[in-house]
Amino acid sequence: EIHAEVQLKNYGKFLEEYTSQLKRIEDALDDSVGDVWDFSLDPIALKLLPYEQSSLLELIKTENKVLNKVITVYAALCCEIKKLKYEAETKFYNGLLFYGEGATDSSMVEGDCQIQMGRYVSFLQELSCFVTRCYEVVVNVVHQLAVLYTSNK
């Protein structure tokens, strides 16, 4: 009977220590369980997107030739819009957002504003061409939608 009480106390002490150890491990892991990817600390990332080997034209195959043409046109326009969006985000957003940041009027030497604007002119020329291309794509989308809507075929 005394031996059983000693074993029971030892077992209780073991469970308490084991529970506290598990709690410490859980607390240590809790901070990192939700962080799958930390951009500032991890230099390498895995891109887990499936690679599609078939082209857009192979995916659009129906028995109706007219429907194939219509779907192909809209798919091409969607791809063009996606490319334009990516180009705007990577090439133009930061230049427009941060132009003139970091310099105050008191810290700029005479002529620095003119030099900064001169360097910005080529960026503005590219932006103008980009906006013109976006306008052409939007007009094309509106024309295609108008033709599809008014068509009796």
From TrEMBL:
Residues 12-152 form the WASH complex subunit 4 N-terminal domain. Signal peptide: none annotated. One of its GO terms (biological process) is endosome organization. Pfam families: WASH-4_N. One of its GO terms (cellular component) is WASH complex. This is WASC4 protein. The lineage of its organism: Eukaryota, Metazoa, Chordata, Craniata, Vertebrata. The gene is Washc4.
